[in-house]
Amino acid sequence: MNKSELIKTLAEQKELHTDDAAKIVNAFIDSIKDSLKTGERVEIRGFGSFKLKEYEGYTGRNPKTGEVVDVHPKKLPFFRPGKELKEYLNK
Q1: φ and ψ at 34, to 5 degrees?
Q2: Number of H helices, E strands in the chain
Q3: Positive or negative CA dihedral for 26, 27, 31, 32?
């Protein structure tokens, strides 16, 4: 399922106009992104949690050329599924 399919499903299930459903989905996603950007952990009970992992920079190699490359420090989002989601998927 992609974002547009999620918007369509929400609109159909809750009998909303597609534009209203898109605003809801976008607000939800933007809230998660904003919270992660400020370093907050986002937990959705019964679904899972999102947090930001910070990685140090390091010296790596380009696998094609063997050239030495500096990899800059980075932050990546990490999702951990909740217990209820795991149980639901493994019924």
Answers
A1: -65, -40
A2: 3, 5
A3: negative
Domain boundaries, given as residue ranges, for the chain = 1-40, 49-91
SS3 38: coil
pLDDT in tens, 34-80: 999 999 999 999 999 999 999 999 999 999 999 999 999 999 999 99
What crossing angle do the helices spanning 3-13 and 18-37 adopt, rounded to 10°? Answer: 130
What token pair was written down for 9?
């499903």
Closest alpha carbon to 54 in 77, 33, 75: 75
**Strand runs labelled E in 1-91:** 42-44, 48-55, 58-61, 68-71, 74-81
Assigned fold of 49-91: HU Protein; Chain A (4.10.520)
